[in-house]
Amino acid sequence: MSAVPVPVPQEPAAPASAPVRRRRGRTAEPESRGISSAYDRRVPGARVVRALVSGGLLVLLVVVALGPILWLAKSAVTPTQDTLRDPIALWPHGIDWANLRTAWVDIDLERYFANTVVIAIGSWAVQMLVAVTGGYVLSVLRPPGSRLLYGLVLGTMFVPAVVLLVPLYLTALDVPLLHVSLVNTYWGAFLPAGASAFNVAIVKRFFDNLPREIIDAARVDGCGDFRLFFSIVLPMSKPVLGVVSVFAVLAAWKDFIWPLVVLPDPAKQPLSVRLPRLANVTELDVLLAALLISCIVPIAFFLVFQRMFLRGGLEGAVKG
Amino acid sequence: MPGRPSSDGRPGTLPIRKATMTALLAPLRRAAAPVLFLLPMLLVFGLFSWWPIVRSVVMSLQQTNLVTAPEFVGLDNFRAVLQDPLLATAVQNTVWFALLALVIGYPVPLVLAVIMSDVRRARGLYTLLAYLPVVIPPAVAVLLWRIFYDAEPTGLFNTVLGWVGLGPVPWLEDRSWAMPSLVLEATWAAAGGTVIIYLAALVSVPPELYDAAEVDGAGVLRKIWHVTLPHLRGVMLITLILQIIGTAQVFLEPYLFTDGGPDNATLTVLLLVYNYAFQNTTGGDYGKATALSLMLAAFLACLSLVYFRVTRRWAS
Amino acid sequence: MSHHPRRRALALASVVALTGPLLLAACGSSDDDSDKSGKVTITVEGWRPGDEQGTIDAVKKQAAAFMKEHPDVVVKPMEWEWNAETFATQLAGGQLPTTFRVPFTDTKGLAERKQIADVTEYVDALPYAQDFNPSVLAAAQGTDGKVYGLPTDVYGVGLHYNRKLFQQAGLDPDKPPTTWDEVRADAKAIADKTGAAGYVQMTTNNTGGWMLTTLTYALGGRMESDDGAEATIDNAATKHGLELLHSMRWDDHSMGSNTSFEWAPINEAFAAGKIGMYMSGSDVYNALVTTNQVDPSSYGLAALPLADGGSVGILGGGSVAAVNAKASAAQQKAAVAWNDFYRERKNYDPEAAVADAEVLKASNQPIGTPTLPVFDEATWQKVQDALKPYVNVPRDQMTSFTDGVFQQTLIPEPASQTQAVYGVLDAVVQKVLTDEHADIDGLLADADKKAQQLLDAS
User: Fold this and answer.
1) CB-hemisphere CA count at 13 Å for B34?
2) Which are the contacts of C267, defined by CB distance < 8 A and separation ≥ 6?
3) Which residue, among A29, A166, A173, A225, would best test binding to B if mutated, counting the most B CBs under 10 Å from its CB?
4) Cα of B236 to nearest chain C Cα, Å
5) Is there a contact between B179 and B260 (Cβ–Cβ < 8 Å)?
6) Which residues of chain A from 126 to 155 reach within 8 Å of chain B, CB to CB?
7) Is C392's Cβ below 8 Å from some Cβ in A?
8) Res C410: pLDDT
9) Which tens digits make up the pLDDT trace of A113-172?
10) Where in chain B is CATH 1.10.3720.10?
11) Does position B210 have pLDDT exceeding 60, yes or no?
12) Residue C33 pLDDT more than 80?
């Protein structure tokens, strides 16, 4: 729930063998010319201005976007009094590595970190299972009524997840049919994460773009629904599985309000939920160390998979 | 859960020969495939999406505290919510947040993207930096910014402002400063995502248009105004709607920064929903909470419809 | 696909039948209240989030000792803290421990909604059942007169101050303020000379209302009529209190620039040396030690300054060790036995108090923090005498409070809709402390109206 919504991940391109359906005006290569022309670049004054603008932008980005994270990294190993006395000091008087240890061991960050990992993995697994099997049925098997079903799935996009907070909580308290409570169980965090219409939609559209000839040929060869899924469709789906996975894991790591509600037991809570509580009773330097530790995984994740995040946004939502 | 296609029947369970078994089960197996593949989606969406949606409608017409049996009360919950003096405050605050986000948060990614699209060297580094705050868990970001927003003159932001002779600013400690402070952090946290959207759209500006503008003697700024921005109109409308949908649901920032304070200055609609359900010490008012949720959902659904129409038109 | 719909339905049914129990087994909880050996298991409130290991060890030791005394009961202490926000969620979710403490203010409401168990039968069986201080026991009773738990941790609000900051400001740490004018002057001295906040008051999550009520009592006002039927927020004492806060905040600048505080954060800030004085329950020193590692030599506790007049007094409160309404009869009985063992007996029986102190001492926990009598004053005195050799908190830095408190009138919290009324008052305090031009008269009139609506609706 941020001011500006997170971008929609791009629908990954189908494998190279697929006949790519292009739209008018969308054939431009990424290496197109920018706003300024070769002529603009040659004008001496303009060159200085351009250098200033792009250099200034870089400085701005480093200070504004990276700055807070660097500050956090520095302050996490700085004694509290130093941080309070001189918050902007570039170098701490003494480095206090013990903060990280204190945070990890004494305030039990270890456990909340592990909880977060469990929740991320479980949510990822459920999301993958639902999206891939659902996408397969809706795109490839297409039993009667699947259009209606797809409509019902897409319809949930109109209902913002946060608005369902209360009824979802009551459902987790007493799951219909099963009559068990998912509150304070990790299933309570995993299962609702699976109900992502967005995942189903991008997987389905990806499957829609798979070369029909291959599927039809497999059918002619007597390939059943299961073999078709495991031997033909899944192996061709790596790009879409990658995108869904990366966003599923990151979303689980960032999630706050639902785990806050469904996991009231502190021993089961993930970092996001636990940190605000600990913030009230923890000394500043240890709190900062805890915040730093909580950022490391998502940042590392982002750096490793940056192409999936950065390879541009809206196509997935616009296409099809 | 569907595993790999298993062998038919478990060994030794029935005295029927395996071949017979296979023949008998063949049609069932054929039917079972779609069902098995559908099952995860049906169960998960059914239990955790469709059923709660239905349930919220039912609950908005009931009085329930989970201890005693629910009681049908008609539209009383809606009436009670509409009569709550806090509702007006919450709606005003949410609109104020959305407006501020529009003024502060909306132009930032656009300007960033337009400048970045013209950067030749190391553009990857620019996008990497711009996107970095997006991956920081929101709860962590808020706790970090809460430290930056220390209202004492020795607070981090106030120290920096002090260098240029400004401040100290009361940040979260003042009715009029609290909301802009929230928006500032929210913009920091989310702008990178929108930058990526714009950059993707900017790539597709046909170069002929720039060439044509240059023939007419247009400079860089005029090219931006006459070529780049018109080309982005569609995306700008989409990000605008997405942003309004997002800001209408703002919860985490007011909840973690100020808990709606000071003096309800940052109480938003969703925070009010949360308070109805979870903040009352002696049992939540789930009826009122769902009633207000539904009203918010109706508003958002209208916006979403507009969004889908716009994207469809833009796509074709 | 051209499968026959009925066949598919059949297959679906069989699949559901197959996977249903699997899911059930996977998600099912294993919280039996009694295992096969016939033992009763109860979960109990153990320690607060952030507590040091010694605190946790002490509770576990006590649990082991209890189980020796009651071989048929298994006690599992867990981290828990009463929190206005999560309480309702946990209650609805059935995630509360079998027994937990709730503030005096909430007992009646919870009892009325059948959310905590009627344990009259088990409490009546305790040897000291007839000896409770009646006004304290009343806090544990529902409107139906039944008993819903054991009243414990009775506190009166005191003024906690930082002796080091007093010294740095040139004030005498052995002479804490005795009037509100002195509080104001000392706060200004601390702010001017040390840069720390001289005086800070809680403002959020209903604690703002709690403390504004305390201030009102100290100045002779009330927030509600005694029967809880009428809101009296718009009174001269509350107005005076808010004006005092306003002058300290905006004229003297002695309250610091950060004003959003509730119980835990204000403790943390005080322990970190950022606050000169603040009001809280007399027993908060325990938390300052176990959670915030306060420096004992810097801690001072003074009796709350009271204005002149017959109606002044200090706000008194406490907790009721209540029992989850969903607990079985055997669990309820075991829970009351645990609360007797762990929380109540030591207030009555000097021997039990000593035994308790031994355990606390072994885990290096604070002993001797001032509380007020749950029973009569003579019993309280006997227990205090027995504990003397064990006291490890700086009692001589608390004499202003311990000498003064028995001369002060203890006034219970507002009778009706207490937490909701506190919520209304939160906004008033926040407004005064964050808006220099706040209209105090208008705020009070408005808050009075809102509170009256709450009282009328209940």
Assistant:
1) 22
2) A281, C280, C284, C287, C288, C291, C292
3) A166
4) 38
5) no
6) 126, 129-130, 133-134, 136-137, 141, 143, 149, 152-153
7) no
8) 87
9) 999 999 999 999 999 999 999 999 999 888 888 899 999 998 887 776 666 888 898 889
10) 76-315
11) yes
12) no
Count of pairs with CB atoms under 8 A, one residue in B, one in C: 115
Domain annotation for chain A: domains and CATH numbers: 117-281 (1.10.3720.10)
Strand partners, B192: none
CATH class of the region B76-315: mainly alpha
Confidence of residue A15 (pLDDT cuts 50, 70, 90): very low
Q: Tell whether C12 is within 8 A of chain B (Cβ).
A: yes
C111-119: average pLDDT: 86
Contacts with A277 from chain C: Cβ below 8 Å = 49
Say whether C27 and A280 touch across the interface (CB within 8 A). no
Are A178 and C23 an interchain contact pair (Cβ–Cβ within 8 Å)? yes
The DSSP annotation for chain A comes to --SSPPPPPPPPPPPTTS-----TT----TT---SS-HHHHHSHHHHHHHHHHHHHHHHHHIIIIIHHHHHHHHHTTS-HHHHHH-TT-SS-SS--THHHHIIIIIT-HHHHHHHHHHHHHHHHHHHHHHHHHHHHIIIII--TTHHHHHHHHHHGGGS-GGGGHHHHHHHHHS-TTT----TTSTHHHHHHHH--HHHHHHHHHHHHTS-HHHHHHHHHTT--HHHIIIIIIGGGGHHHHHHHHHHHHHHHHH--HHHHHH--SGGG--HHHHHHHHHTTS-HHHHHHHHHHHHHHHHHHHHHTHHHHHS-STHHHH--
**Cβ proximity of C190 and C270 under 8 Å:** no
Q: Using a CB-CB distance cutoff of 8 angstroms, which residues of chain C are in contact with residue B262?
A: 203, 259-260, 430-431, 433-434
pLDDT band at A239 (very low <50, low <70, confident <90, very high): confident
Residues C27, A143: C-beta atoms closer than 8 Å = no
Q: Which domains does chain C have, with CATH numbers?
A: 40-153+317-390 (3.40.190.10), 155-314+393-457 (3.40.190.10)
d(CA A101, CA A107): 9
Element (H, E) at C150: strand C149-162
- Structure-model confidence comparison of residues C127 and C3, the more confident one: C127
- Complex ipTM, two decimals? 0.83
- Bridge partners for C159 per DSSP: C279, C302
State the pLDDT at residue B29: 65
Residue closest to B190 by CA, chosen among B144, B138, B240:
B138
Residue with tokens 């239990």: B47
pLDDT on residue A92: 67
Per-residue confidence at B10, pLDDT binned at 50, 70, 90?
very low
Q: Tell me the nearest-neighbour CA distance from A310 into chain B, angstroms.
A: 6
Per-residue pLDDT band for B95 (boundaries 50, 70, 90) equals very high
Least confident of A119-133, A225-239, C80-94: C80-94
pLDDT of res. B21 = 62
Residues of B with CB under 8 A from a CB of C: 1, 27-28, 30-32, 34-36, 39, 65-68, 85, 150-153, 155, 168, 170, 172-175, 258-259, 261-264, 278-284
C72-80 mean pLDDT: 91
Buried b (16+ CB within 10 A) or exposed e, A196-225: bbbbbbbbbbbbebbeeeebeebeeeeeeb
Confidence of residue C25 (pLDDT cuts 50, 70, 90): very low
CB contact, 8 Å: C13 with chain B? no
CB-CB under 8 Å, A271 with B210: no
Judged against a pLDDT cut of 60, whether residue B9 lies above it is answered with: no
Note whether B173 and C258 are within 8 A (CB). Answer: yes
Whole-angstrom distance, CA of residue A28 vs CA of residue A10: 17
